[in-house]
Amino acid sequence: MDTISTWIAALLTLAIFSFLYRENPIYRFAEHLLVGVSAGYYLVQYFYSAVYKKLWVPVFQEGQWALLPGGILGLLLLLRLHRRTAWLSRYAIAFYVAAWSGYLIPSILQAQVLTQMRGTVVGPYEGTGMWDYLSSWMLLAGVVSILVYFYFSQEHKGVIRGVSKIGITFLMIGFGASFGYTIMGRITLLVGRFQFLFYDWLHLGTR
Predict the structure, then answer these.
(1) Please, what are the averages of pLDDT over each run of 10 residues along the chain (207 residues)?
(2) Cβ-contact 74, 92 below 8 angstroms
């Protein structure tokens, strides 16, 4: 079974790589198979973790009937599959959006806004070495210059124009670093597939 699964994985990997030549029926078959298997796998996983473990077991086996309204709201979402009953799903969507907004906005504001603001403002005065002070002041300069770049209430000329250009430089550095990180992640996946083909399938060496 291990040999069969290895051959199937290798052939499907080569089918995906065939897209490098051009789009073809073999690639489309592998793509559709991947999407279908992934959808079926996650459907079963979500059904077991959400419907069975969080609704069926606590409500119908443990008697926690207070959780039943949440299950009803979840079932209302499935009514979108029928045109005549699709309007009922709007009540569930409205409840989920309002509840999650009220739950997540304070925590996200605290974690991603206030904490970063404190680190930007107080950080330059809390360093323990020359590099800490330099990096903190550079971070402060980048934040201020980027905010000036997005300040559109006044025409960008003179000092504002010069500071906004510095902000553009910081933005390009940030975008470049994010893009490079994404590329490195994709290259890591590619190397992993080549290692599987060479070592696990063709047995051309050892890891």
Answers:
(1) 89 94 94 95 93 91 90 89 90 92 88 81 73 84 92 89 94 95 95 93 82
(2) yes
